[in-house]
Write a structure and sequence with these properties.
The mean pLDDT is 78. With 190 residues, this protein is mainly alpha-helical. The protein has one domain: Orthogonal Bundle (Helix Hairpins). Helices cover 81% and strands 0% of the residues. It contains four helices and no strands.
Length: 190
């Protein structure tokens, strides 16, 4: 009877030991999954932010384009009116060309008042800052992911965890790796 209790006690201790090792490996595996979800979250953030910021930049650039085209067109009307005034042969023609010049000048004023700020440069700068910040966040969560994967891999490769990891189907996780050629400086030309 005493011998049976000792054997039962040994199996209980061994069972708790195995369960403890298994649970630790499962916890580490879940940490890897959580770290990868952070990477995915930042990828989604990049997609969302870039799309919305790009729309803002495009809108600001189009707004500025409309302003500049309107001002250019109005200036052209002033120049045309000035040329016509030089060639005017009657006071009525001179008065007509003077009115055209005044309307073109008024058009310039209306263009500027209708669009009080030209901000495409600011929008582009904000977009660049957003790109930089987002890429830094992604780099940080990738590094964090690699740290968690390293911890997990050490856990499943060291004795006696490697015995239990193999028994329960836990294998080594792949770390984040850059694309082939990413170590080369990109060629930027204008």
């Amino acid at each position: 009877m005493k011998k049976g209790l000792i054997i039962l006690g040994i199996f209980a201790v061994l069972g708790f030991f195995i369960v403890g090792k298994y649970n630790n490996i499962v916890k580490s595996d879940e940490e890897v999954k959580k770290a990868w979800s952070f990477v995915q979250t930042q990828y989604q953030r990049r997609a969302d932010v870039f799309a919305s910021q790009l729309d803002v930049v495009k809108g600001a650039a189009n707004n500025e384009k409309e302003i500049l085209l309107g001002i250019t067109k109005a200036r052209s009307g002033i120049v045309d009116a000035q040329e016509n005034m030089k060639n005017a042969t009657t006071p009525a023609q001179l008065d007509q060309y003077l009115q055209q010049a005044q309307q073109a000048a008024l058009s310039i004023k209306v263009q500027i008042e209708a669009y009080p700020t030209i901000g495409s440069t600011q929008a582009f700068l904000k977009f660049q800052d957003e790109i930089s910040g987002t890429e830094n966040r992604i780099a940080t969560v990738r590094d964090d992911y690699n740290v968690v994967v390293t911890t997990f891999n050490k856990s499943v490769r060291t004795f006696p965890n490697n015995l239990f990891a193999g028994m329960f189907g836990f294998g080594i996780k792949e770390q984040f790796k850059s694309e082939v050629g990413a170590d080369k400086r990109p060629d930027i030309s204008f």
